[in-house]
Amino acid sequence: MAKKINQLFFNKKPVSGKRTALALFLGPALLITILFFVIPLFMTIYISFTPTKNWNIQKYLGTFVGLQNYERLFRLITYDPDMRAVVITTIVFIAITLSINVLGGLALALATYFIEERVSTTYQVLWLLPRMTPVAVYSLLWYYFFHGTKLGILNNLLLALGVIREPISLGTDPRYLPWGAWLILIFVNGLVGVSFGMIIFYSALKSIPRELIIASRVDGASTLHLIRYIMLPLIKWHIVFVTVWQLLSLLTSYVHILLLVEWRIVDSSWGQTWALFTFRTAFMVVKDQGLAAAAATILSIIGIGLGLLALKILGYREMIIEPKGDI
Question: What is the pLDDT of residues 136-155, one digit of tens each?
């Protein structure tokens, strides 16, 4: 049995059974990818070349307008200040929130790793609450926290401490834009993302053989040396995964932001990302599906490009190279 398994998966020569095994393992994943990603992507690209509006598919779907929707999108970015705000907000939101999600998750995982497991479990559950809480409930909590009147918890705290004399609307008052709106978006979404990184990194750290940690301690390694030279190199795969996953997730996330914008907690321009602009254009504001499809197509291209770039920078190719020598 061991010889057959070795021939099936590790023999470099083509084996008929190997293709069957690959088909069984990869077939369902490929089918799901084609049905729920490839086909919708091509449909989106197709719609981006049509003048589809108000979901009147029968009227517009057979009419082609070439690059007209992309030209309209380019003119919006060039001449519309609100659209330029959307682009800048997207860049700032992704860059800062991604750093918090990855580095913050790693810091929490390391912190909980070095304390007693029973205590660390309690802290992990607390950090998971933002992810376990329904989106509407979670967003409603921050609605009351950042509300621009005395109803807001933040305003009550600042008034009690004497920091401010009257309530402030951090996310909509022009005096605090754009940083006020960005602070709210990053804070709300960062708490959700950092818990994901914490769980992945903590699981990776717990998979490191305990004997290796003990031997390093016996040899006189400090905690910083242990983290830098032992732990981080051993969880490179997980760092790559969390970084790329969070990058693509932030690029397309809009649900929490949508509720905060609709509830007027953050400004509709400086608090709106590209993904949210695409959603609102298609379903809420002008219901221009052709323009929204063009924006979604550009977002997909950017996402694929950034994902591949991140894998290259993080050394994904080096990590999947076959080890030298026979196994």
Answer: 999 999 999 999 888 899 99
Asked whether residue 325 carries a pLDDT value surpassing 60, the answer given is: no
Among 176, 137, 171, 135, which Cα is nearest to 152's? 171
Write out pLDDT tens, residues 111-128: 888 887 777 788 888 888
The candidate with the shortest Cα–Cα distance to 109, out of 21, 234, 6, is 234
Q: Dump strand ranges (E) for 68-156.
A: none
Q: Are 265 and 154 in contact (CB under 8 A)?
A: no
Q: Which pair of structure tokens corresponds to residue 264?
A: 């007027």
Cβ atoms within 10 Å, residue 53: 15
DSSP string over 149-161: STTSHHHHHHHHH
In CATH, what number is assigned to the domain containing residue 234?
Answer: 1.10.3720.10
Q: Transcribe 23-49 into DSSP letters.
A: HHHHHHHHHHHIIIIIHHHHHHHHHTT
Query: Residue for token digits 């002008």?
Result: 286
Summarised one tens digit per residue, pLDDT across range 158-182 is: 998 988 889 999 999 999 999 999 9
Q: Is 122 part of any domain?
A: yes
Burial class, 320, CB count within 10 angstroms (exposed 0-12 / middle 13-18 / buried 19+):
exposed
Neighbours of 282 (CB within 10 A): 21
Quick check: is 20 in a domain? no
Q: Domain count for the chain, please give it.
A: 1
Quick check: 197 and 105 in contact, CB under 8 A?
yes
CA gap 271, 264 in Å, rounded: 10
Which pTM was predicted? 0.85
Structural domain harbouring 149: 80-287
43 falls within a domain: no
116 in helix, strand or coil?
A: coil
The rounded distance, in Å, linking the Cα atoms of 95 and 313 is 16
Establish if 310 belongs to a structural domain.
no
Residue with token string 């609605």:
143
- Encoding tokens for residue 180? 């006020």
